[in-house]
Amino acid sequence: MSSHTTNTTAPLHQVDENAYFNSNPPPKALPQHIAAAESFINQHAAANRRVVLITSGGTTVPLEKQTVRFIDNFSAGTRGATSAEYFLEAGYAVIFLHRQFSLLPYSRHYSHSTDCFLDFLYEGADGSVVANPAHQEKMMRVLRKYTDAKRRNTLLMLPFVTITDYLHELRAVAQLMRPLGPNGLLYLAAAVSDFFVPPERMAEHKIQSTDATDKLRQGPTTMRQEKREQQQQQQPSEGGGGNQKQNGSGKDGAQPEEETFDNFDSSPAVPRSKRLIVDLDPVPKFLKNLVDGWAPEGMIVSFKLETDPGLLVHKARYSLDRYQHHLVVGNLLSTRKWEVVFVGAGRDDRWIRVPINRRKKTISGAEELVGAAERDRSTGGGGSNRPLDPATLPEGEPEMEIESLIIPAVEEWHSKHVESATTRNGGASASR
């Protein structure tokens, strides 16, 4: 019998997993991250503490093996970093799997501030560095929370960069969380790439923007150059009409010269043969693997971001039905800081919204008009099953962080998950 027989009988998602991880090498830091995560999880499992794995930020898709160019998304990691702070306040230990250089818990209050961090400081009379009095109260509050998390070792931060890094890290940490059983929570807030360039089609070196080095380059390339003759199709012949072009020839029969390309050429007529054509494959969907094999007893929360209000709940419900996990948090790009919708199996959709009285005042001062259309629909936890109209919201961000409402609701959901598992397992105690 062939040695490949077992692969043909394995579930499709398992076959995809094996193929992907066997052909996409792990990040160099994975062994160190595994060791750190294992020690962290063991510590908090012994303390009977719940552990949440939060994924945060976007994933890059490299176009070269020695990466200069890559595809990215807009995610700064705001949702994940903010959620981590509220999970820590709720008593969880947090593994923060984040995009390198994205927002981090606690330092997020300053690292991406509209003010330079140095504006929060000034030089004291004795030459010391002192916090600006106007910001001292908030800085002290944030510092104390950060120091407490470090002292109790309740926050472990693990970075990633590429989509492949992310998936290797996610699989490894999720599998380490198995001993936690239902006390493990996976909160998948990262903006994960849907497409990638397989290694065998990836350029080794920087993709060139001109043909100056064509005779020197060797090896595979992400770029496919389309020859001009492929663009100029031969016209059908009807009795040998004199106006017909043959194989791209001009009226005198000569082949047209290839247009030159210059990075500073402002002409919109860029030859198609000089365009960069990137051939992307879909990233396998590993949420089913997560549910069935990587962390089968943990509670799994995924996020669904859409721009079309008419698709949001439908896509969230589709994801839940397809992967059979526990909760999808849906949000719209235009209102993601104002509302989300919880979509869970066997439960009514639940909209969570920033209360009207915590929305910022209007520039005109007509505060009574802010959110007036939603007054009967939103009290921060219920209301209509329709998304908010962005036109009813004030400019800027809300006065309160919506994560302060999301995390208690997720914690409540997780508690029910733990209680249900406890009942099935014959009354083992639930942790906090």
Automatic annotation (TrEMBL):
> Low complexity compositional bias: what residue ranges?
244-253
- Cross-referenced SUPFAM superfamilies, in alphabetical order? CoaB-like
Renumbered residue ranges of the record's region Disordered: 1-23, 206-269, 370-401
Record-level Gene Ontology MF annotations: catalytic activity
Q: Where is the composition biased (Basic and acidic residues)?
A: 206-217
The positions making up the signal sequence are none
Task: List GO BP terms, alphabetically.
Answer: coenzyme A biosynthetic process
User: Where is the sequence biased in composition, kind Polar residues?
Assistant: 1-11
What PANTHER family does this protein's entry cite?
CORNICHON-RELATED
* Record protein name field: Uu.00g108440.m01.CDS01
User: Source species, please?
Assistant: Anthostomella pinea
Source organism phylogeny: Eukaryota, Fungi, Dikarya, Ascomycota, Pezizomycotina
